[in-house]
Request: fold
Amino acid sequence: MAFVRNAWYVASWASELERSLKRQTILGEDVVLFRTQDGIPVALRDRCPHRLLPLSRGALIGDTVRCGYHGLVFDSAGTCVHVPGQDVIPPNARVKTYPLAERLGLIWIWMGDPDKADETEIYDLAEYHQPGWGVAYGDALHVKADYLLLCDNLCDPSHVEYVHPTTLGSPGSEGGAVTFEGRDWGVATNRWSLESEPIGFAKAFGNFADRVDRWQYYYMYMPSIAIIDFGTAPAGTGAPEGNLENAIRVFSCHFLTPETETSCHDYWLHVRNFGADDPAIGEGISEQFRIAFAEDKVVLEDIQREEDRFEGGIRVGLDLDASAALFRRKIDQTIKAEA
Ligand code: FES
Ligand SMILES: [Fe+2]
Reply:
């Protein structure tokens, strides 16, 4: 399977990694995750090197995993430390381990060359840590579609009018013009909709009723992190020039982890500049996002099904595809460079 391997992907919510064995499929590889007694996260290949039973079928005993078939015991470095019924431990009785890190309430895993794993390269969002900003965690949405279909969607501000008419889009308008540019880290796609109707989200959380200026900045980071900076300000108050005084602003963060070539998890959370200390507001935003992301899921899973049985032939290209196409080219180049 062709994935960018030398990258940090999200393996779990930090809060969901406990003193038990958790199996996750990441880039087509089965991994078993747990925390040691000291709380350190560990990831091993979920496959016993004896008869290949997934280790997640076994038991977590102290900081070791005991296979559920013949009782081989592996420590958190993947070394076999006990073989029932014999003194000699075969030197090749080893399980692959993966570098892990804990940031932004997430467990990050490095699936590539361990020597290249550098924790300072893990994505960070400054506002997540700043006073005046509220953070809320969403879900790990499972989508039966290639993660690149989600990346297409997250390079594409124009779909909101049609897919999310009640929450993130304004059904009566076509929005402003979309622009984009390639960056070292991926692709940035922008759209300003000036003097426009407020979207449902802005009516609900900003009490906007009159005309507004609203923006969508879609930052698609290689290989699969999307940060959507969107917001709404009263029309004509200088938001495009940087005056965000009366604006509501949200960073909607999607951390996509490919599971297989045709399925992925979308770990999403968001950071807002209003009601920072009120968890009910965070939950209210999550409720709107749940509606919207479920709408995306339906669209993308339907597209995946059609892709699976596409006979070839005409596929129309549009101007709005350009930014997603650039992102896919960057992914292809990175995969080739890694090979
Ligand atoms: S399969 Fe794991 S010990 Fe035999
Ligand atoms: Fe969407």
Observations:
- The longest strand covers residues 248-260.
- The radius of gyration is 22 Å.
- The helical segments are 126-129, 147-153, 160-163, 200-206, 279-308, 322-338.
- The pocket of fe (ii) ion (ligand 2) is lined by residues 153, 159-160, 163-164, 292, 296 (CB under 6 Å).
